[in-house]
Amino acid sequence: MLLYLTTFIASFAGAVVFVPVSILLARKFDVLDHPRARKVHRLPLPRWGGIGIYLGIASGIVAACYIFPSFRELLTHNYKGIVLEKQLRGIAFGATVAVIIGAVDDKKNIRAATKLLAQIIAAYVAMDFGVRIFGLTIPFHKTVAFPQILQQLVTVLWIIGFMNTINLADGLDGLAAGIVAIAAAAFFAVSVILSKGAAVDLSRQLTLSAVLSLGVAGSSLGFLAYNFPPARVFMGDSGALMLGFMLATISATGTLKSTAFLSLFIPITVVAMPILDVCLSIFRRWRKGVKLSTPDKEHIHHKFLEFGWTQREVVLLMYVLTLILANLTVILTIIRK
């Protein structure tokens, strides 16, 4: 438990320290989000908060590696022939790509195709380094192992889906960071529960997933000190894409390793609200005949604002709904276990 506590505290402290640095960098390079018709803020705000979140997560992982020899030893083991250290390096590389492409997009709005290509690269590298969905257990049936090409396809699509889901959820001050923190905390709880009594190799894989979960949760909460309404900084695409990437890889290395069919729905249920919003957005834009990337002001949180709710009230409501779903998945995991 000391390993987990240290990772969380170091990630939280890292974000608290590095987010102000990212604010200074954003102001220096004029990476500001200016008020527009579909925006809900009234003053230009820095958009590179994601860099601070990224460095916060890195602080937690580095602290775990340097302070705990047991964690370094754990990374030398392998799960299904994949060394965990290599897996961690793949996740670090993919997260770095997500931050860089997001930061560039925050600065000068790159083409959607270019951004998608960068997401594919980040997802493929993580998959190639061992972050992989091997198969699925169907109720009343044995576990179905995916052929290698299907493993690759499903894993890459899973990661890209999470990246864009969190990106689209980042519409109000504190919304995406809070949802991610709750989801990461739920992934941590599920990973710990599943690791109890599991085979040694699986237990170590789940321990890595738990450590990564607390790194994301701690850094997201540290960022909220600057982003909770009224925000002083936005995470931008650099933060949203990276956090979506982290949640996807954590679920692929953690909750999806369960042999229960329920494992497929754990990560989906935790982020059900953003997923619902994304589905409604896709349907809405398809019906209007506009590009899927076309922004609008018809997301779920925008509707609550139209009803007269304040930003803080809407954000807190979304926290409560996400927390309920997260608790449900943890309870179901305990029952199943």
What does it look like?
It contains 13 helices and 6 strands. α2 packs antiparallel against α8, α6 packs across α11 and α7 packs antiparallel against α8. The two termini are 21 Å apart. β3 and β4 form a beta hairpin. It has one domain. The protein is mainly alpha-helical. The model has no long low-confidence stretch (mean pLDDT 85).
Number of helices: 13
Record field, number of beta strands:
6
Oligomeric category = single chain
Secondary-structure-derived class: mainly alpha
Work out the count of structural domains: 1
Strand order of the largest sheet: 1-2
Strand content: under 5%
Structure characteristics:
mainly alpha, two-stranded antiparallel ribbon, single chain, 4% strand
